Amino acid sequence: MRRAALFAAAAGALALAGCGGSADAGAELSVRSSYMPQPVSADLAAGFLTIVNNGGTKDELTSVTSDAAGDVTMHDTVGGAMQEVSSFPVPAHGRLVFKSGGNHLMFEKLKRRPRQGQKITLRLSFAKSGPLTVEMPVKSATYNPSTGH
Ligand code: CU
Is the full-model pTM beyond 0.85? Predict the structure, then answer.
């Protein structure tokens, strides 16, 4: 009897902690499926990733930087033409997807040409959440994330 009561109290405390935690944290961001196809050019590369928000507050990706490139810009693709954008929304309980043919990152003024098997470190900055660091693997030039090669 006494033991059961202790278990119930412990479970209640855990539930409360979980609840309070997510309310305070706002957006809860994590990064999945990042990759850079090995670039054909020595000074320009593309990068793709998915930002998942498990929190109940929307956020905004406001900038991307990398030691590997002098400049990283964010682009979307409308009607086959890409254009630079200054920020991307990350919806509450949603995701922001960068993929081939759609939203993408452009790495310009590369310090050295990325090779398959290397990793590129990037830093994502958000309007509300703290920055995230991503180790983006360099894949083959023709890598397709849906088939894995
Ligand atoms: Cu572009």
Answer: no
